Automatic annotation (TrEMBL):
Species in which this protein is naturally found: Hymenobacter jejuensis
Molecular-function annotations in GO: dUTP diphosphatase activity; magnesium ion binding
Keyword flag Metal-binding: yes
Name this polypeptide is given: Deoxyuridine 5'-triphosphate nucleotidohydrolase
Enzyme class: hydrolase
Amino acid sequence: MQVPIINRSRHELPSYQTAHAAGMDVRANLEEAVTLKPLQRALIPTGLFLEIPVGYEAQVRPRSGLAYKHGIGLVNSPGTIDADYRGELKVLLVNLSADEFVVQDGERIAQLVVARHETVEWQAVEELTETGRGAGGYGSTGTK
């Protein structure tokens, strides 16, 4: 699949780090480093502008290494970039650790996964089909 992209950053395009990776790493495009204090969030620019095909979305997800090593995640995870959005891709990072974290220019801050999606047309009904699970949720499976 080919996706049109404008790169106004000083960095390479998002890329897969291994042959079978689902997500491409996205880099911060900063004039100066951004310090995230504990529980602080910041919208980090990437300098990238995407033209996602209709019927697809780009999902912005946390990088597992940043989450594990530094407690850095995304506030809205996964974030969705819709096919009709043409603004800059920005990543909403949050520091969930007890320590400050410094985001450097060029640092890999998120993953980008492009995925197909369906468009739903709701069908209003009075009843839903029965299942073995029924209305059980929030930890109800596997218990009796």
